[in-house]
Amino acid sequence: MGISQNGDLPLLSIHGFKPLDLDDLREQVHQTMDFIMDYYKKVESFPVLPSVQPGYLRHLLPATPPAEPTTFDAILCDLHRAILPGLTHWASPNFFAYFPATLSSAALAGDLLASAFNPVAFTWLSSPAATELESLVLDWLAHLLRLPSCFLSSSASAATRGGGVLHNTTSEAMLCTLVAARDAALRRSGGFAAAISRLVAYGSDQTHSTFFKACRIAGFDPANVRSVPTRSESDFSLEPARLRAAMAADAAAGLVPAYVCATVGTTSSTAVDPVGPISEVAAEFGAWVHVDAAYAGSACVCPEFRQYLDGVERANSVSFSPHKWLLTCLDCTCLWVRDTRLLTGPLGTDPEYLKNGPSESGSVVDLKDLQVGVGRRFRSLKLWMVIRTYGVANLQAHIRSDVEMARRFEGMVRSDRRFEVVVPRRFALVCFRLMPRGGMVEAQADKENRRLLEMINASGRAYITHTVVGRMYVLRFAVGSTLTEERHVASAWELIKKKADELLGVEVSPVPNI
Amino acid sequence: MGISQNGDLPLLSIHGFKPLDLDDLREQVHQTMDFIMDYYKKVESFPVLPSVQPGYLRHLLPATPPAEPTTFDAILCDLHRAILPGLTHWASPNFFAYFPATLSSAALAGDLLASAFNPVAFTWLSSPAATELESLVLDWLAHLLRLPSCFLSSSASAATRGGGVLHNTTSEAMLCTLVAARDAALRRSGGFAAAISRLVAYGSDQTHSTFFKACRIAGFDPANVRSVPTRSESDFSLEPARLRAAMAADAAAGLVPAYVCATVGTTSSTAVDPVGPISEVAAEFGAWVHVDAAYAGSACVCPEFRQYLDGVERANSVSFSPHKWLLTCLDCTCLWVRDTRLLTGPLGTDPEYLKNGPSESGSVVDLKDLQVGVGRRFRSLKLWMVIRTYGVANLQAHIRSDVEMARRFEGMVRSDRRFEVVVPRRFALVCFRLMPRGGMVEAQADKENRRLLEMINASGRAYITHTVVGRMYVLRFAVGSTLTEERHVASAWELIKKKADELLGVEVSPVPNI
């Protein structure tokens, strides 16, 4: 390399820094893969929930960034020394907390490719393949879930403009549809100043907290966001009659019902709101219906679970998160809407620096106009690779295996008369508790179950979380972490029984190390 | 594996599907890495902007998902056949469009690890290491940018509650701070119903379109979002006097100035709004000031560019995107706020199923309360690994090298009297155009430059985008794609000159293949 035209020295001879040197790349990924393989081999033996104290990391890593490079070996050492001890091991087969965040080798490979290509598909032109693969894969998943054709972009015409988009979380899907519904309601109610304070959004007391937060973000008056009470008699689902009563009261008071969130598989107990009847009620008031199937949507790839989406043909939008239960790792939420124009209205932008022929022709979708941000990862790649690599049959087997493991766990709980299953199990979550013993008030039962949970989690050999349904403190056992096999479920049950023995003061005979 | 307790068959014998089989994982990542290495070796030779037509992918891939598994070889074949021809090659060294989306081997390795661990750090407890590394790395970057200590979580106390969070895009950072500012303004103005229609947000006509969109999402009346005009005499920066005039007029009309967005490095032309003086004006009206340094923030790791953030100590929040110019691949935006409590107020949630001891103790940060969603990737890992692997000195060298390449390109443009540099170059973006020739009106010059851009991009040998500043159609040449070296910049200039020759009808002598 010689001196350039204008006499300047070649830059590489000035510093020589190549952040994407191919030898470095191969070596670093190779070392990283060794680390990951080793991690997966050992993760079963790690305490699922770490025992570190708040602030622990500041004692292990320097407070200021290093001036000079560090060897990759030293970085991986620090991962072992400082990061792993503070990780909650979501990938552990003994992880039964929250809902699982599942992954797969195909998703890891797909996400690596997305990082390597690193296109920013805000407009079609800025990466046609990324935009078109996203539309295609969302149509594939819509087929899998047997969504009505009004949600497919391949069925879109001048009259119907359905389609899908990948968001990072359900919250973003809710927020974008709330904004669409809000602006539609404002248009028919006299405009912003006249109506913004009168718009109302509805969920149940089981709807995810992020719905209420999304309403706040979207500028709904917090006083106008309803949480309709549910009952154990209805399995904690949103009852259409109660919804109608709430909407009618608001309408009578001069308010404008604008949005209803129906949940298929609530976070507490996987309750299912009846989508069809709820949509009928909402239609009476002209309100938007969004179906949040974040967790249970994945199960609907199996025909036997599809019934829970019945009525979705009447909804305005539906979302679910393959990063939860469809093996795609974070983050990956699918949103379908019946009319994309209602989203691109409030969310569309057209700055000069992004103007281009295809966008102006109207023949393409610019996905930035269906989401909060402008930038976006090539998320469809991992989803496409998961579906291709495994095929529908394996995805169904994956769901069925988790559900079957949960069914067996439920059987174990039912076989021990100290415990009860609190709500019917529908998918792969079992909600159970120690029953109140003779003369015990509920508050005492809650305290005992809370203590049991603490003892289980402190053991490090399983991680389970809790909820409160029907005023009862309940343990949630969510089967589905990718590496979980039957033996882990069985071990967890042995652990739970042993801790119950300890808690209830039963003389404990030696238990084999599980 | 035998028959289980209750007589059920072991599940693995039922289907045997293991989505995270370690042999598959090693093999698939190995094949993927071969693909990626091959891609990087060849990417320089690919047309940067693909020539596919809208809908091209539907002709190449099946319309419905496959029932059965596909071999990984076949999937990689499809990547070659169907995806690569439709990719806009952001990783190409000949990519000079938009702003670069940079990456590095360390970021790829870090992101792979994040996918493999796949923790969902909504609360501290759900993954202490992910939460604590995020706080630490944001403090590191704050040190690097010499942000005042009020933005550091390590300096937080009962009185000051500064801190940072990683978002996926600048849009999310703007949205969250808009919601915080909105609710603060509502509190001091009589509450939601009384004031929501009176809140006003301010940017300039150069502020990114996503700001105006974020205002709409956050429920600001579109009629109350101001785009203050800029002038070429002030290098298209937001002038404090004009801002004051706009705010005063609104205040006099009974409106409530709530938020000002100051940009350091606008998208069109890398204009820099004067953060200090703007903050002074905003303070007169009690409005929040957010500093959007999405692109140019990365440059501020070099002391010689830090001046552009002067005054940030008076702002309420500041964000920049390492996924743009700091080698971390998508998506990764840093947001710092002076008082995290103003975010956790409107964005905080506390559902029963996430309640836990550390959160209740108040001794930890739950990052879900500083963002739109609940779920979140372990994004800090790649950022930490980039800083560790390269060290501050190399990050500075990386920025300086890009800026130097842009400076040299600017010199080339200036040396050709057919062209002019339209706005002063500050970072690594050069805005230039063919000057209007004798008697040509501006509209003709615009048309000529548009045609030149089309010819350059149609060649496939470089990708450049445009903007309009000061009513002029201008070509944007953004240096900084990770693989770009001096020779690519020189080749791009030769290409531009050649296309200008063709366009202007100069007799073309044979040009060596570049």
TrEMBL record, chains A, B:
Span-the-membrane segments of this chain are none
The UniProt record lists the keyword Lyase: yes
Keyword S-adenosyl-L-methionine among record annotations: no
Q: Which SUPFAM superfamilies match?
A: PLP-dependent transferases
Q: Which Pfam families match?
A: Pyridoxal_deC
Q: Which PROSITE patterns match?
A: DDC_GAD_HDC_YDC
GO BP term (any one): phenol-containing compound biosynthetic process
User: To which protein family does this belong?
Assistant: Belongs to the group II decarboxylase family.
Q: What is this protein called?
A: Tryptophan decarboxylase 1-like
Q: Which organism is it from?
A: Phoenix dactylifera
